[in-house]
Sequence to fold (265 residues):
Amino acid sequence: MEWGMKNRLSRIFKSDGRTVMLAVDHGYFLGPTERLEDARKTITPLLPYADSIMLTRGILRNCVDASMNVPVVLRVSGGASIISKDLSNEAITASIEDAIRVNASAVTLSIFIGAEYEHQSIVNLSKLVDEGEKYGIPVLAVTAVGKEMVRDARYLGLACRIAAEMGAHMVKTYYCKDFEKVVNGCPVPIIIAGGKKIPEKDALELTYNAIREGAAGVDMGRNIWQSDHPVAMIKAVRKIVHENVSADEAYEYFNSIKEEIVVKT
Fold:
């Protein structure tokens, strides 16, 4: 692996090999998602606690202070919206040159295994890996799941392995029963998606179980910034990922600081 590639990955994954990635790329197909309507207001207080941030170039340029020192994972796929016929009909929507211009530490796109545009999305990934390798920029493949897909170890294991086989340097997927099978079948680091908003205790248990069973971190969005106490939540997630505390300990910590942080902000 080239020095530049290693360096960029080391910015995303800390010395313990883990990462807390903040996902704020939802608007590229969902529009102004609840509590992400004013992206700058949502993102700014969370940045000091994120190891990296996943977002589009439009939100990066317009809503994030250029002096921030958080690695950028740039979303470079799109082309379909929540009201379109098929969300899997995506293309690469940003060039590797633009990723370099915004100093991205990685680029990311979705693959849609089993969907109508599966072939197109896998080819998109392969092309993006080719471009990234030219400049030492790693690629995160997101295993997007359609409504008709079952999020079990067999399906997610298939999707993650295909992503790795195509050259992805890391994969974002969902936690599931027998998650260790998914990890064991994927030769690159797996990051867990937070998914839809669930109670804070449940989100912390999800984080704990995923890390315990081999995940290299989380890419959490709605379960952080849709919380009534987003800063307390991301700090509690960090406790699990980087300090190996239990879900119960993290939830106790969350409750102990949430009101204090609200007063300070």
In short: The radius of gyration is 17 Å. The beta strands are 19-23, 52-55, 72-75, 77-78, 91-92, 106-111, 139-143, 170-173, 190-193, 217-220. Residues 3-227 form a domain with the TIM Barrel fold (CATH 3.20.20.70).
